[in-house]
Design goal:
The chain has 317 residues and is an alpha/beta fold. It is built from 5 helices and 17 strands. The strands form 2 sheets. A 9-stranded mixed beta sheet has the order 14-15-16-13-9-12-11-10-17, with helices on one face. Strands 2-3-4-1-5-8-7-6 form an 8-stranded mixed beta sheet. The termini are far apart.
Amino acid sequence: MSVDTGAEAMQIPRPLAPVTKPKGLGIFRTGHVSLFSPDPAASAEYAVSHLGFLHAGNDDEGRHYLAGHGPDAYSLVYSPGVSGLETISYIVPDDAAFEEAASTLARAEVDVVRDEGTSRFRPGPTLSFRTPAGHPIELRVGHAPEVPVAASTRRPEAAPAPIASDHVVLRTVDMEGEIEYVKTKLGLMESSQIQLPDSSALMAFFRGSKLYHCMALARADVNGLHHVQFTVKDGAAVLETFESMTRSGVEVLWGPVRHGPGHNMAVYFRDHVGHIMEFSSEEMTILDDENYSPTHWSVTDPRSADEWGTFPPESFT
């Protein structure tokens, strides 16, 4: 009896398509988030004593730099001001990608400020600009690992212990216009949407590389910051964070929860200024961009908010 040893009989799997080169500006991941505070020193002290950050220093302009427990020099910055978002700093993987992003922005006639970065906290060049909704973006060269930062970082012994900045959620009036800009100009890939009954987007989630999102847009009446997120090591760390914050008097808003989009486990709270922050873990990774299709969740599906059945308070929206 003959045996067919051909590829069809053996069912040899077809190799996956190679990962495509990032489009647009080549954004890889979030580097840090800078927030305004009327008292940056007090906000930094609170972030150290209550939220688990490490003080990385301050500069002559009054900015205070907070490090997580990962490889980045800092993940959170408080700058002199009332409140709100000063900038989201995104990382591109190398100097060539940075210069290509600069050329892309110039061709698109985007109003960009280039800073060559000669200070201790700015050792390399940055590109700063705003999206059509006014959301402030910064690009710089930074650590671009093959796996998400939290996965390659040793589990901290204490809690809370943020490891790295992974995403920011932005309130947006013109959702359709901003979604188009994020996809075509920033070059971020869409991971999912939470949709209203008319199929328009209530929220849209975008990634630069493997991690589910480095940016999300939320439909709102005003443009601005909704919340900033920092990753902790694992699900146990989220529970430990909740317990620690409850004991220390941090204003916990919602959680622990398990989101549908991204499947991350999260707890939400307010910082010293009142900004909403999220510590979360176990965020979904997308390994095959070529064969991935963005998921659409209905706003009427309670799992889109929390697979465990809770809903955010009014103060969260």
